[in-house]
Amino acid sequence: LDLTTAHDFAFGLYFSQDWASLRKCIPVASGGINAGQMHFLLHYLGDDVILQFGGGTIGHPDGIAAGATANRVALETMLLARNCQMDTLKAGKGILEEASKHCDVLASALKTWKTTSFDYNSTDTPDDKLERAHARHIDRRNEKGTTASTETVSTTDETTTAPVSLDDL
Length: 169
Known about the structure:
Shape: elongated
Number of strands: 6
Distance between the termini: 34 Å
Strand content: 5-15%
CATH superfamily of the largest domain: Ribulose bisphosphate carboxylase, large subunit, C-terminal domain
Radius of gyration: 24 Å
Number of domains: 2
CATH topology of the largest domain: TIM Barrel
């Protein structure tokens, strides 16, 4: 058993550790998700995922237990449909509606959140000015053959001059 973890700061705050066959990262869906989105969640995130249904459970009109049941029925329905070779992404809404005919709490959840969409724009967009400034810095550093320099960087309307080193990048 290894009781220490090697540090590799060249990759940022990163620790090297033998995780055997465990994934080092697992997707998490949280914030505004509900049973009616199950086909999207499983398609885009896969089976090995953490689904945190806060309001999608607690906000169920028949109570928390009903919300938890609706989410589990939706999950198991999508897994069964997928395992039966159904295209759950295209037919997901219809599959859930069919299942809701046999599960009142799922029907109630689908009705409650029927207008909730799963259509969001990414908030992780590149900062083009910062990327260009970083590329210029790398080019200049490579031309000089040094690991540190002073560079003028303009990422907004303001221009600043500061020492830049590899540790800062």
